[in-house]
Write a structure and sequence with these properties.
heterodimer, A: about 425 residues, alpha/beta, four-stranded mixed β-sheet, 12 strands, B: about 270 residues, alpha+beta, 9 helices, about 50% helix
Chain lengths: ~425, ~270
């Protein structure tokens, strides 16, 4: 059953068991030499490259069918399985449980589904005005202890990196402790690292679980299951790592056969053909579901309609994955200044901020901030959703890499 | 007279044996190489990650010293007949003359070599010498060059290390502790103020959270002085960091109605 397969890929583990996907050394060396020797490409490689350049991005309507949004029923059930007897007992070892996921780990959505499925109460976050104005009246609704656990899907919404903002989190924890109220928290890894290193609140949270990163095989299974849910009959085919493309001549079924033959694999075992792409995707995305999902969606190409007069894409749509060596990840705009680094860290810790909040907590002019936001938006590093500026999932690897190189890395995962 | 003239001929080569062009070329090449080293090494260091930059920058004077020594070793045999007695005689006389004439210069020169070994300061360090605070931009053979916070370049001879004290804020590392002071009138809750200022430091984007953040207070007759001690990511942001802490701290304290001291003179015992 697809659900059984999917259940195996959503894992919540202790921090000590958490690991990242890695690329074997031989693959890294191969990629390095392939890049170095690209000036000595064969005529066939050049022809393939020219053909590849005539492929265009898949329209969004097609992408929505090929790679639909992720469903969180399975990870929500996995969370309940992890909580186990803690949900039943009246005197637990600790009243809190925390689930930490990296940026793009969708822990907020997962916990929301968990709460909805189990009829747990979701705690509404305070408004920005409450946080900045030292108004703690939003905690009045926590007056009595409820038998069912309270769920805080996103701890970032209860946090503001401002001298007036930190006290809200401290008082929330103190009140929940005082009421002996069970609570399930969801937190992104950037805020978790801040809570540990700056506020030293780690000890207040009890047991902590990390969302295990997904391997290439896990991502392959996840997207295959999701596309089956969409009900569309698409055929995917992957260009081998050497970039060989034969789109215009082959039909859809022949694409799979072609791809299998290029790798010398048994065509019946065609899942092995696309493993290399997903392994690379897992490494590039650090095994983070939404980051991998965003990069995966942008990796599809179709032939330009004008080139292909004989095919009828509407009858038999074929979407090809980009070569694993050509996975495109947006880069940060140059030059990247210290102010941009500060802005990116704060956006990650808060999982998005409005313009007013950015101006208040970074103490910068709005005009200057708008300039930085415009620069980052132009390079597709950030986007605005309901006036809240967030980092693009697809850009997260580049952002994280930049912050790590400049000693601004504040990530627990 | 003749025996003396014979002695000098024995020490120095004949004029027609001295390769003048070679000497001129060697000196010019040495000067060019020194100049290139002084420019290229810092430029190359700027391209490296911050950790490597602070390792490479202090090597600049070492490279220059090496170039100078090699040049002298190549030059001397072209002028002096290579025999032990000649070299001993020459260097002895030169040393005596120079010792008297350039006593202080020599002192600074030797202090510079000692400073390379002991490293009381390195290029990139922020030091206070004789009351002058600034970042060490260059360490030359005789002196070091500081650039103060007012962007003034100050040249200080190395001989200052013999008798004076040198305060080094970062001692070769990228980070340094910074302090921001707040002077408050009496009649406030110190626990509240301490919590506010601690949160101020924890929420500044400049604060390096892996280093300790502390708030200390001292009581005076005119009020209380609170001091935030924290580390920015880069010690070069010292001024920006202290400014950021001061702005945030004052804004936060004002929202709680806490009054600031207006004392215009603070004696040295209370500072």
């Amino acid at each position: 059953m697809p659900e059984d397969k999917e259940q195996q890929i959503w894992k919540f583990v202790s921090p000590a068991e958490f690991s990242l996907p890695f690329e074997p050394v031989i693959k890294k060396a191969h990629s390095f030499f392939a890049f170095s020797l690209r000036w000595f490409e064969r005529p066939k490689d050049k022809q393939d490259r020219e053909i590849s350049s005539r492929l265009v991005k898949v329209p969004m309507a097609l992408i929505e069918k090929v790679v639909p949004s992720l469903d969180y029923k399975v990870p929500a059930a996995e969370i309940c399985a992890n909580l186990g007897s803690w949900l039943e007992t009246t005197v637990p070892d600790s009243y809190f449980r925390v689930f930490v996921a990296p940026y793009g780990g969708a822990i907020g959505s997962i916990l929301t589904v968990t709460a909805q499925n189990n009829h747990f109460l979701i705690l509404d976050p305070p408004s920005y005005e409450d946080l900045i104005g030292n108004n703690f009246s939003w905690m009045d609704k926590l007056s009595a202890s409820a038998p069912e656990p309270i769920v805080v899907p996103q701890l970032e919404k209860f946090f503001l990196r401002h001298s007036n903002g930190l006290e809200h989190l401290r008082r929330l924890l103190a009140k929940l402790h005082q009421n002996k109220q069970k609570c399930i928290f969801g937190c992104n890894s950037w805020l978790w690292q801040y809570l540990e290193s700056a506020m030293q609140l780690r000890g207040s949270f009890g047991r902590c679980y990390f969302l295990q990163s997904m391997s290439g095989a896990n991502l392959q299974t996840l997207f295959a299951v999701q596309s089956q849910h969409s009900g569309e009959n698409f055929v995917f085919s992957r260009q081998p790592d050497n970039g060989a493309i034969n789109l215009l001549q082959l039909s859809a079924s022949e694409c799979i056969e072609f791809s299998s033959s290029q790798n010398g694999k048994n065509k019946e075992n065609s899942t092995d053909v696309i493993t290399d792409f997903f392994n690379k995707l897992a490494v590039d995305s650090r095994g983070i579901p939404l980051v991998a999902w965003a990069i995966y969606r942008s990796s599809f190409k179709v032939p330009d309609e004008q080139e292909n007069k004989d095919e009828t894409p509407k009858q038999r749509p074929v979407a090809l994955l980009e070569r694993s060596t050509a996975i495109m990840i947006p880069r940060l705009p140059l030059p990247v200044t210290q102010k941009i680094a500060f802005l990116l860290v704060f956006l990650l810790q808060h999982d998005g901020l409005t313009l007013d909040a950015i101006a208040e907590i970074l103490i910068m002019d709005k005009a200057q901030i708008l300039g930085l936001l415009g620069l980052l938006k132009e390079s597709e590093t950030i986007f605005a959703e309901n006036d809240v500026w967030k980092i693009n999932w697809q850009s997260y690897p580049a952002v994280r890499s930049f912050l790590a190189e400049n000693d601004f890395l504040l990530d627990a995962m | 007279m003749t025996p003396i003239m014979n002695d000098s001929e024995q020490i120095f080569r004949e004029l027609n044996q001295i390769p003048v062009l070679y000497i001129v070329f060697l000196i010019a090449f040495s000067i060019l190489l020194n100049s290139l080293t002084k420019r290229m090494v810092p430029a190359f260091a700027e391209m490296l990650p911050p950790g490597f930059k602070h390792f490479l920058l202090p090597m600049t004077p070492l490279f220059q010293l090496l170039i100078t020594i090699v040049t002298l070793l190549l030059l001397i045999p072209t002028v002096v007949k290579p025999s032990i007695q000649n070299f001993v005689a020459i260097f002895g006389a030169v040393g005596l003359a120079l010792g008297f004439a350039f006593k202080d210069f020599a002192s600074s020169l030797i202090a510079g070599v000692v400073a390379l070994y002991e490293q009381p300061y390195r290029v990139g360090d922020r030091v206070s010498i004789n009351g002058i605070y600034g970042e060490v931009q260059a360490i030359n053979l005789r002196s070091l060059r500081l650039v103060t916070l007012d962007d003034n370049a100050v040249t200080i001879p190395h001989s200052c290390i013999w008798n004076g004290s040198i305060q080094n804020a970062n001692d070769g590392s990228r980070e340094q502790q910074c302090a921001a002071d707040f002077y408050l009138l009496p009649g406030h809750d110190p626990r509240l103020v301490r919590r506010i200022l601690l949160d101020t430091a924890l929420t500044s984007p400049y604060t390096k959270l892996s280093r300790p953040v502390k708030v200390g207070l001292s009581e005076f007759s005119w009020g209380t002085r609170y001091r935030i001690r924290a580390y920015p990511y880069d010690g070069r942001d010292e001024l920006a960091f202290i400014t950021d802490l001061t702005i945030r701290g004052k804004a936060a304290l004002i929202t709680f109605g806490i009054k600031f001291s207006a004392v215009s003179f603070v004696n040295s015992a209370g500072s």
